[in-house]
Amino acid sequence: MREKGLAGAGGAQGRNAMAVKLLFWELEKHLKSSSGASVVAIDNKIEQAMDLVKSHLMYAVREEVEVLKEQIKELIERNTQLEQENNLLKTLASPEQMAQFQAQVQTGSPTGNAQPPVPPPTGTTQALPSSQSSGTSA
Q1: Cα–chain-centroid distance for residue 99?
Q2: What is the pLDDT of the chain when averaged over all its residues?
Q3: d(Cα 48, Cα 34) in Å, to the nearest integer?
């Protein structure tokens, strides 16, 4: 995501950098050519350069804000998806599995090293509710 913002701003940055260089080159040329140059003209050139830098910075900040807004939007969507998945897994887990998970959380042991799930007692079948048997939610 960040690459889009920087790539879009790259062309503007290059143009702004060239404009600043040109402004300073003109200022330097002006100062060398006329030693008695008007102070007002120099002040105007400095003000133009400062305005150019300000507009460049504002543009860069706006671009970065847009990139960050997009990242926030994507993270919110991902968080919502993970919450739904978590809720689904909680509803599908047996009470024994939930107790085992809670014990792992309290002891701080990683969930990857968990014991295999406890199979349901023989003679009974764990049936999924019809609304949840499709596998995933989205």
Answers
A1: 36
A2: 76
A3: 20
User: Would you say residue 74 has pLDDT above 80?
Assistant: yes
Cα(40)–Cα(25) distance, rounded to whole angstroms?
Answer: 18
Q: Does residue 134 register a pLDDT over 50? A: no
Chain centroid offset of residue 126 CA: 42
Please write the tens of the pLDDT for every residue from 9-42: 556 677 777 877 887 777 777 666 655 557 778 8
pTM: 0.46
SS (H, E, C) the chain: CHHHHHHHHHHHHHHHHHHHHHHHHHHHHHHHHCCCCCHHHHHHHHHHHHHHHHHHHHHHHHHHHHHHHHHHHHHHHHHHHHHHHHHHHHHHCCHHHHHHHHHHHHHCCCHHHCCCCCCCCCCCCCCCCCCCCCCCCC
Pick from 30, 49, 29, 50: which is nearest to 38 by CA? 30
